[in-house]
Amino acid sequence: MLRTLAVENYRSLRRLVVPLSGLTVVTGANGTGKSSVYRSLRLLAEASLGGAIGALAREGGLSSTLWAGPETVSRGMRSGEVPVQGTRRTGPVALRLGFAADELSYSIEFGLPVPSERTMFALDPEIKVESVWSGPVLRPGTVLTERRGADVRWRDGSGEWAHHPHRVRAYDSILSEFADPDAAPELMALREQLRSWRFYDHVRTDAEAPARRLAPGTRTPVLPADGSSLAAALQTVRELGTGLDTAIDRAFPGSRLEVDDRDGWFGFALRQPGMLRPLAAAELSDGTVRYLLWVAALLSPRPPGLLVLNEPETSLHPDLTEPLAELIADAATRSQVVVVTHSSRLAAALADASRIDLEKHTGETVVAGRGMLEEPPWSWPKR
């Protein structure tokens, strides 16, 4: 289980170190940095797929995603007595992401590229440092594998450092490039862990949404991130999982979901009390389809190690908040779950969750009511 998420210099997250539990709710007003917390987790997952550089590029590149404020924010700046002003940087420009977990922990640092006239990709950030260590606390004796620049080394069977004969490229993560079970087996274990993480963010429910379309009728234990194959995913839950009919009845009393096979293509409809026929996917409201998406995602018969939901309350009627909260709490018995929401009602309904309330001071995202001395222990590997 992840115990700590650490982010430095990513958008409004100048320095954020937060604890995570089996079920964590991240909440706050609009613009306080909730989406940045969600994106930072996605970037960590992208590193295992070799896609972190591309993901940063889609956000506008490193220069657009770096903390735009001063390197240090004084007490006078926070109180408004002193104007916010830039100061000379004392350290290298870096975007850092990391997490601490019970077994294997990880951090990655992105920096500015070395100027070169030999490439047109001069805006691509470079990976400067990566580190994998055992347990939640980084100490010299717990480091298992580390990468500085192009050099990679790991602990061999005797505990001594061994260096990889090949130099890793500045845009490649060691998680995606090294797959030798004899050399640094922890990289393979960590890579599989991150690749099991699952993210759902503003899945479409409009008239042309993939969720409303017919899809091939094949077993779908994991709902795709775009919501496609929803009918097949719901039928898979019905046959391989538990709780589907209860979740439908809890939200829409007396209703029953029907999945039909049209020459190998599945569609779905909702039969409701008092109606002479079931309502097909195209006839259902956005909120109803949204709830069915969450049913398929949260009751997955193949639960992930980490499930991250970004504003799942979007387009749902307030009456569906309690059924959604019950689904999330149930999913947290099988997976670690992080919910990012601006709904105080959903946050309150998840009464057993640990809660992180974000607010913004002088442009910087902070945890409400918490000082640095109350943070989980965290330190970054040195460049």
List the helices and strands and how they pair.
Layout: E1 2-10, E2 13-19, E3 23-28, H1 34-48, H2 52-58, H3 62-65, H4 75-79, E4 94-101, E5 104-111, E6 126-134, E7 143-148, E8 151-155, E9 161-163, H5 174-177, H6 185-195, E10 198-201, E11 215-216, H7 230-240, H8 244-251, E12 256-262, E13 265-271, E14 279-280, H9 286-298, E15 306-310, H10 321-331, E16 336-341, H11 344-349, E17 354-361, E18 364-367
Parallel strand pairs: 3-16, 3-17, 10-15, 15-16
Antiparallel strand pairs: 1-2, 1-4, 4-5, 5-6, 6-7, 7-8, 8-9, 11-13, 12-13, 13-14, 17-18
Q: Quick recap of the structure?
A:
This is AAA family ATPase. By secondary structure, this protein is of the alpha+beta class. It has eleven helices and 18 strands.
Total individual domains: 2
Could you state the order of secondary-structure elements as H and E? Answer: EEEHHHHEEEEEEHHEEHHEEEHEHEHEE
Q: What is the count of β-strands?
A: 18
What are the segments in which pLDDT stays under 50 over at least 5 consecutive residues?
none
Radius of gyration: 23 Å
Please tell me what the overall shape is.
globular
